[in-house]
Structure formats: C-alpha cells, structure tokens
Specification:
The protein is mostly helical. It is 46% helix and 7% strand. The protein has helices spanning 7-26, 29-35, 42-45, 52-61, 85-98; strands spanning 66-69, 76-79. It has a two-stranded antiparallel ribbon. It is globular.
C-alpha cells in the first residue's frame, strides 16, 4: 500500500466505504457494488493473486454484487444475495483453480441473532 495517496483516491475510497455501509444496511445491490470498489489496496495487490481478475469476473457473472481482496490477501470475499452465495463461491474457486491458484469455496452463514455472551 502506498505511503501517500492521491486526494481523489482517498475521497473515492471514502465514498465507496459509505456506499457499502448504506447498501448493506438497506439491501441495495447497486450501492453494494459501488462500495466493493477498492482504490487503495486492490490496485497494488491484485497482481499478487494469480487469476484475480478472472475470479472477480466469474463471481460477478455468477451473481455477486462485488468481489474483492479480503484484508491483506490472499483470500477473496464476495457479497451476493443469500440464495446465490454457494454458486458465487464455487465460481470464484473454479476460476482461481483454473488459473493455477488452487482455491476452496466457503459460504459462511449469516448470524442474525446478534452478539451472545457465553462461558459466564
């Protein structure tokens, strides 16, 4: 990640973050898609993940609102409608594997109950 960013990239990243948060809050796929655009980490790190561009395309074609690098990498994360998550995960994993980057598809469940304290 660069030590300094162009002002436009910093503003664009803040815009994406706000769109993602609002999109997730109200369930708006277009806002989520906009919010998944990363102007800081992805341009630098995408070349470190063999098949990244192909995997993003495969995930979006399978129904994801967006696909991006999770954290420092090398994991990819996608946001998709609940009923299509397994198909999206499988498409991304197949694409990465076809590019010589063996991948495993994971589709974790969403917890809707909120935080629980255990072990008390």
């Amino acid at each position: 990640i660069p030590a300094q960013l162009p002002r436009g990239d910093a503003i664009g990243q803040a815009s994406s973050s706000a769109a993602l948060l609002l999109g997730l809050t109200v369930g708006d796929g277009d806002l989520i898609s906009h919010g998944m655009i990363d102007r800081i980490a992805v341009p630098v790190r995408r070349s470190l993940i063999e098949g990244y561009d192909e995997a993003v395309q495969a995930g979006v074609e399978a129904g994801a609102h967006g696909v991006t690098i999770s954290g420092a990498g090398s994991t990819l994360v996608a946001i998709a409608p609940r009923e299509g998550t397994a198909e999206v995960a499988d498409a991304i994993a197949r694409s990465l594997t076809a590019c010589g980057n063996p991948a495993q598809a994971l589709s974790p469940e969403v917890v809707e109950s909120g935080m629980e304290v255990s072990g008390q």
